[in-house]
Each structure stands twice: as structure tokens, then as C-alpha cells.
Design brief:
Layout (H helix, E strand, L loop, with lengths): L2 H6 L7 E2 L2 E2 L1 H14 L16 H13 L5 E5 L7 H16 L3 E5 L3 H7 L2 E6 L2 E7 L5 H8 L6 H8 L11 H6 L2 H19 L6 H26 L7 H17 L4 H26 L3 H20 L4 E2 L6 H8 L1 E2 L2 E2 H19 L1 H11 L1 H6 L4 H27 L1 E2 L7 H11 L11 H20 L4 H23 L6 H5 L12
Parallel strand pairs: 3-4
Antiparallel strand pairs: 1-2, 5-6, 7-10, 8-9
Length: 505
């Protein structure tokens, strides 16, 4: 998460107009507290994780001060901050107190406690040992209460020690990763140029149209996976839900039901799957890996039950207006691809400008901190899984329009492609980082590589191998970039990883 986004996370109403974020207000808020707290940063768009521990701490202080609170509780507010910055923070605390704000400071540094406090409460072994006021606030009296009348010189020295937490800044690789979209775009251009030289037929309109059609349906699933990964979860049922909704719509069409009504029913079935996934992950607390893996089998099982394992041909039951969604074109561009492009643009706008979608990043970045910020985490999770299921259902419906066949085998293995596209595009499997544009380019890259292999008469088995190798490389790069967090992808998905601690103001 960027410094700007972190600063505004606790004050979304103050930087928004309705449901839309105001980038100017968000920048103004961030710059104001960066200047007020003397935060040393290369820019407000940089990730907060790239800063030193002290500057991270000051960013978090600014985050909560943006609310203009009546009471503020600060736990170790100056840990990791240099001496000059400490003086600034102490002066700020005094100004807040003088302005009528109630300031509660929890600190293990006695000089700090004595310097900023009007009244001191001392704890001993988890219980309140006593209060000190005025001239009573001395190191000796504090330690006497804290040690239970047993004061040891060693303990005193420990209390007097000043801790400085230094964290290394981002390496060159992290800075390069910030330009992931541009990197992927350049790779796409390079691959197209090389293949076009080897086989000029690759850039013919017919092949480009074929790539665009292939991108569309798998791209919808990839956008859904991107949202799940940003949330800090996973979604393995996108292919199964797509197959189930395709079969439901196809079967209803065979029964004489209006195709548009059938599509609404299919979307409703998809939404129910999403509600189930969201409920089990948020309310029950099951790992998303287990929940979505189960839904993958359940949804595809429903598709097999309805079809008895045989594809349903609906070529004579679909109106031209419906088939136009997948077979028509506008100015030579497939309508199916235009639909995908529209969904991508809408998703891109909402993830950048919408309060609700911004919360997805907050939850994925640090769920505990999101809860403390007042975000309804359960609601965010349910919302995300419902949206993913609806995108999967849309992919299934469009596949029905394209192929005129409803098969339970639809989108089998599409989860791998979707995850690959998202990770290639820069979405982190640790949560809180990624974007729709990167996924858009990622799915294009994968489909271009697939088409290139076909044009060069490479065996389909090698195509699967290449896609698997791309996924391994992408996941490895993501893991190496985030291994210091202590949470591997499998640990988070299986619910075995340690939770990110709540960021303390």
C-alpha cells in the first residue's frame, strides 16, 4: 500500500465525494502530514513498506491525526524515530493536549513518559500499580511501582535504553516492480516482434481476432482472481462456477425458457456460490483455499449432474441477438472483447476511485489494522467473492454464446491461467498489492505466448509446460519480493501463517 493510501485509510470520508475518492484531497492530506511530521520519503506514491521503521511510525501517526480526534491513544509513538523527530512528536503531543485533545501515551521509555505526561499510570505484572502526578513523576518512583518495590540496576538500565529500529529501504528490484505494467507491456511487444519475424502470419487480423476472443473469457476470470489475491485470499472455483452457469443457462434454453431470463438465473446461481464462499471465509473463518477448492468441485459437479457428463448443444435455441455478444464485431473488433474491455475499465475505475474497492486493499494489506480503522472486514470479503462469482458466471454465459455448447468441461484449469495473469501483472499473492491493468496485460501476454507456440507447431503438451513454467517464475519472483513478511502463499491460504500485526499509531 502506498504512503498516500495509508494516510487516508482512516479518513475516507474526508477525501471522498460520496463513493468516489478525490485524488487531490488525498494527496493534500498526505502531503500536509508528511510536511508537519517531517517524514522523509521519496514520494507519497511509494509503498509504506519501503520506509524505515521510524518514518513508518510517523506516517501512522499522521493517519490518525487526520481524523482530528478528541482522544488519541499512542503505543510507543516514537519508537524507531531519531532524536530530532522525537522532539517534534513530543511537541505535537503537547500541542494536542493544550488544544483539548485527550492524549494517552503508552511508552517503555522513561524520559519520554516523564517529559510528556501530566499524570502517569504504572503497571506491574498486568495490574495497575499506582498513579503519579506532578513532582511525583520521577524515574525512581515509576520503577519502584513497576518492579513491585524491587528495583534492580539492570532493569533500570533496560528502561533507560532507547531503541532504534532500522529497516533497510527497498532494493532496486522493488523499484522496478513498481513499473510492472510497463515491463509486461514491453515483453508483449518483444514477443510479438520476434514471433512476427519468424512467422509473419502471426500478426494477421484473423489471428489477432482469435487472440482477442481467447483473452475475453479467461480475462474475466483473471480479474476475479486479481480481486481475491488483493484481498489476501484465493479463488479456485472460478472455472467450476463458469461451467455450472453455462450449463444452467444452456439447459434452461433447451427447456424453452427465454435466454435472457436463463442468463439472469445463471447469474443468480453464480451469486449464491459467491455468497457461500464469502460467508464461509468471513463468518465461519475457514481458509479460502479449502472453501474455494470445495466450491470448485461442487459447482462442476452440478454441471455434470445436469448434463450427465455430455455436452448440451443449443445451436438452434439461441437468438441472434444473444449470439451476437460473442460472434459479432464492431469496426472489426469482436463484441466479446469489447465486453471484456468494458468490464476491465469499470473494474479499473472502481479499484482506483471507489471507497468500497479501496477497502479491499486495506484488508489485504493488514486485516487487523483494517478492523481497527472501522472497516467491516466481513462485508468486504463477502462483496469480493460475490463479484468474483458474478464475473465467472458472465464468462460462462459468454462462452455459451460463443460456442453454442454447454459443457461441464468448460474452463477446466482456467484457475492456473488466471493466477498466472494476475501475478505476472504485479498482483502480490501476499495481499494488498496489485491492479487490474497489470492483469489485463498479463492475460494478453499468456494468450500471445499460447498463440505463438501454436503458430510454431509446438505440441500442446509443451504449451501446458510453458504456461506452468511462467507461473512458477512469476510466483517465485513474488515470493522473493515478500519473503521477509514471514507469510508464504500456502501458509496464508491454508490459514497457517501468522497474521500481520495491527499497525499501531
Amino acid at each position: 500500500m502506498s504512503i498516500k493510501n495509508n494516510m487516508s485509510s482512516a479518513n475516507m470520508k474526508g477525501v471522498s465525494h460520496g463513493i468516489w475518492l478525490d485524488d487531490k484531497l488525498e494527496r493534500s492530506l498526505a502531503n500536509r502530514f508528511v510536511e508537519q511530521l517531517a517524514i522523509k520519503i521519496p514520494g507519497i506514491e511509494y509503498p509504506i513498506s519501503s520506509l524505515s521503521g521510524g518514518n513508518q511510525q510517523k506516517c501512522l501517526i499522521g493517519k490518525w491525526l487526520s481524523l482530528a480526534p478528541k482522544v488519541i491513544i499512542m503505543d510507543e509513538p516514537t519508537r524507531g524515530i531519531d532524536v530530532g523527530a522525537k522532539r517534534e512528536i513530543h511537541a505535537l503531543l503537547r500541542q494536542l493536549a493544550e488544544s483539548g485533545v485527550g492524549v494517552i501515551v503508552v511508552s517503555s521509555e522513561l524520559p519520554e513518559v516523564i517529559g510528556v505526561s501530566d499524570r502517569v499510570a504504572v503497571m506491574h505484572e498486568g495490574c495497575l500499580a499506582g498513579f503519579l502526578e506532578g513532582e511525583e513523576v520521577t524515574e525512581e518512583n515509576i520503577m519502584k511501582l513497576a518492579s513491585g518495590e524491587q528495583l534492580a540496576e539492570k532493569e533500570l538500565r533496560q528502561w533507560k535504553q532507547k531503541s532504534e529500529i532500522k529497516r533497510t529501504g527497498p532494493e532496486l528490484l522493488k523499484r522496478l516492480l513498481r513499473q510492472r505494467e510497463m515491463s509486461v507491456f514491453l515483453i508483449i511487444l518483444l514477443v510479438v516482434a520476434i514471433v512476427a519475424i519468424v512467422n509473419p502470419k502471426f500478426i494477421q487480423p484473423s489471428n489477432m481476432k482469435s487472440i482477442a476472443l481467447s483473452v475475453a473469457t479467461d480475462g474475466l476470470l483473471s480479474i476475479g482472481l486479481t480481486l481475491a489475491l488483493i484481498l489476501g485470499g484465493i479463488e479456485l472455483s472460478v472455472g467450476g462456477v463458469a461451467a455450472m452457469t453455462c450449463v444452467i443457462a444452456g439447459q434452461m434454453a433447451l427447456m424453452g425458457v427465454n435466454i435472457w431470463v436463463a442468463c439472469l438465473a445463471a447469474l443468480a446461481a453464480g451469486a449464491i456460490c459467491g455468497l457461500f464462499n464469502g460467508f464461509m471465509v468471513s463468518k465461519v473463518g475457514l481458509p479460502p483455499f479449502i472453501v474455494t477448492l470445495s466450491m470448485m468441485n461442487l459447482s462442476r459437479g452440478v454441471a455434470y449432474i445436469i448434463t450427465t457428463g455430455s455436452p448440451l448443444s443449443v445451436s438452434g435455441y439461441l437468438p441472434d441477438s444473444f449470439r451476437f455478444l460473442a460472434t459479432g464485431d464492431v469496426f472489426g473488433i469482436p463484441v466479446l472483447f469489447l465486453i471484456f474491455l468494458l468490464v476491465t475499465v469499470v473494474a479499473l475505475i472502481f479499484t482506483k476511485k471507489s471507497n468500497a474497492c479501496r477497502n479491499i486493499y486495506y484488508v489485504g494489506s493488514n486485516e487487523n489494522a483494517a478492523k481497527l480503522s472501522g472497516i467491516n472486514v466481513d462485508r468486504v470479503k463477502i462483496f469480493v467473492y460475490v463479484v468474483i462469482a458474478l464475473l465467472s458466471a458472465l464468462a460462462g454465459i459468454l462462452s455459451l454464446a460463443r460456442f453454442n455448447v454447454a459443457t461441464p468441461e468448460l474452463s477446466k484449469g482456467a484457475e492456473t491461467t488466471a493466477i498466472s495473469a494476475a501475478v505476472i501483472g504485479g498482483t502480490s499473492m501476499t495481499g494488498g498489492l496489485g491492479g487490474i491493468l497489470g492483469t489485463f496485460l498479463g492475460i494478453f501476454l499468456l494468450k500471445i505466448v499460447d498463440s505463438a507456440l501454436v503458430m510454431m507447431n509446438v505440441s500442446v503438451y509443451w504449451q501446458d509446460f510453458v504456461q506452468g513454467a511462467i507461473l512458477v517464475i512469476a510466483v517465485t519472483i513474488d515470493y522473493m519480493s515478500h519473503r521477509k513478511s514471514g507469510n508464504s502463499f500456502l501458509q496464508r491460504m491454508l490459514g497457517l501463517g501468522r497474521r500481520k500485526p495491527a499497525l499501531r499509531p
